[in-house]
Amino acid sequence: MAKHEHVRVAVIGSGFGGLGAAVRLRREGITDFVVLERADSVGGTWRDNSYPGCACDVPSHLYSFSFAPNPDWPRTFSGQRHIRAYLEHVTDTFGLRPHLRLSHEVLRTRWDGDALRWEIETSKGSFSADVVVSATGPLSDPKIPDVPGLDGFPGKVFHSARWDHDYDLTGKRVAMIGTGASAIQIVPAIQPTVGRLTLFQRTPPWVMRRMDRRITGAERWLHRTLPFTSTARRGLLWGIRELQVSAFTKQPAVLGLIENLAKANLAKSIKDPALRAKLTPSYRFGCKRILLSGEYYPALAQPNVDVVASGLREVRGSTVVAADGTETEVDAIIFGTGFHVTDMPIADRVVGAEGLTLAETWKDGMESLRGATAAGFPNWMTIIGPNTGLGNSSMILMIESQLNYLADYMRQLTVLGGRVALAARPSAVGAWNRKVQSRMERTVWKSGGCDSWYLDANGRNTTLWPGTTGEFRRETRQVDLAEYEIIRPKAAPVTAESTPRDTEAVA
Ligand SMILES: Cc1cc2nc3c(=O)[nH]c(=O)nc-3n(C[C@H](O)[C@H](O)[C@H](O)COP(=O)(O)OP(=O)(O)OC[C@H]3O[C@@H](n4cnc5c(N)ncnc54)[C@H](O)[C@@H]3O)c2cc1C
């Protein structure tokens, strides 16, 4: 018979979010938890994205946990291999291995309103948990567009997040679809190797130079010997980014100044006026994610690269056809077409208190309370939930704020005592989202004249946080019980000492 395990907390996912939650639970003295991970190792994003050139675009000293500084980052913007190794190191250092349940894909979870717990079905047995922390990642499930004729393509096809390292690109004719953050790292990495590279670009990105360099031995020695220097470096990187936020969220006009620098970068790198015109964005700087690379433009200027300023329309045999009619014969198609962000796949697999899935509840757009909990889904918390993304800084800052919220949530449950669940009040969820969306109106993401993956099918930005990371930290420091219904078991026996109630309102 399949094994069933009950735990206090089930964490789904073992990227920065899931591992961070695991560390935080242990620090709160909670050891009765599992981390359910569909892959056979930890690392999330940094396990799955192993494409050539893959690296972070936020400096490593900020793109790492504050509670696990790494004095040995090799570069200012370290590569995938080192970030993945860092997450393995965190797993060992904080004793997380016994909690890991690898190759356990969560297939379905259902709230049991009588037992006040989540029933969880995985690919390797079932679990139940009082609390679920869903850290399945915003950029975890690759999106490949439905291109007519793709099935009949005789060559190689893969997504940037599922790189096929067994396929040798040397001398091949390659179509790269998309010009997002992954594509601009891939293009310069493969351009010298491939025979011909055709880049399909629906919209050109704004690109600034990335100030990447080796971190010297002396710097590393200093950070190891005097750890406060590493903290100071992180603080400086954080502070600079906090100062930039108001340009994105309140005064997009200020971004015009930086836009000029980006234009100068383009002009310096691309001498051919026709190519430069193709690569010049027609929307405001910052509206889509600003991309950082010193190698992207020079790679595009090479003679074995063509830029087709149009999306992919169809595939006919080994010919890829752009929306503008351009036809190119290729051996391989690489999709750098992003992820299921505003339609997160886990939402289809979670059935809440009303019998609806999270996806059904969110059919008009994702909405949560403080980026974490959702009405109708008691004791369910999402790490990097709706409106917690950033346009200019490290997601680890947001994750750590959410871990503060999780820690306080667990404390509140303990203080309330017994079998108990917290359910976000619809009124609180509504109030939070009205506030977030009203602040969104002034942002460059709304007014900058672009269509981006930050927006959902209704054109609403349910992805980004329209403020500083410091503000988000303050907003998530503590759970405000007034925003929750406290749910006790319905069938609690009536005794002289107790007067059961279905729900306790906390005013
Ligand atoms: C190429 C790339 C570069 C990036 N660079 C940066 C950067 O420089 N700075 C920055 O701030 N952010 C960056 N990001 C964003 C990045 O996603 C976040 O910073 C962070 O890594 C997200 O961590 P996470 O744990 O929430 O999600 P992930 O790292 O995506 O981890 C989610 C985990 O959940 C697992 N999972 C999903 N569904 C299930 C299921 N049903 N059952 C079991 N397990 C499941 C997945 O296998 C995965 O291991 C980048 C993203 C990508 C793709």
TrEMBL record:
Its cofactor is FAD. Keywords: FAD, Flavoprotein, Monooxygenase, NADP, Oxidoreductase. SUPFAM superfamilies: FAD/NAD(P)-binding domain. One of its GO terms (molecular function) is flavin adenine dinucleotide binding. It holds the Pfam family FMO-like. It comes from the Bacteria. InterPro entries: FAD-bind_Monooxygenase_sf, FAD/NAD-bd_sf, Flavin_mOase-like. Belongs to the FAD-binding monooxygenase family. Catalyzes a Baeyer-Villiger oxidation reaction, i.e. the insertion of an oxygen atom into a carbon-carbon bond adjacent to a carbonyl, which converts ketones to esters or lactones using NADPH and/or NADH as an electron donor. Thus, can convert bicyclo[3.2.0]hept-2-en-6-one into the oxidative lactone products 2-oxabicyclo[3.3.0]oct-6-en-3-one and 3-oxabicyclo[3.3.0]oct-6-en-2-one. Is also able to catalyze the sulfoxidation of methyl phenyl sulfide (thioanisole). This is Baeyer-Villiger monooxygenase.
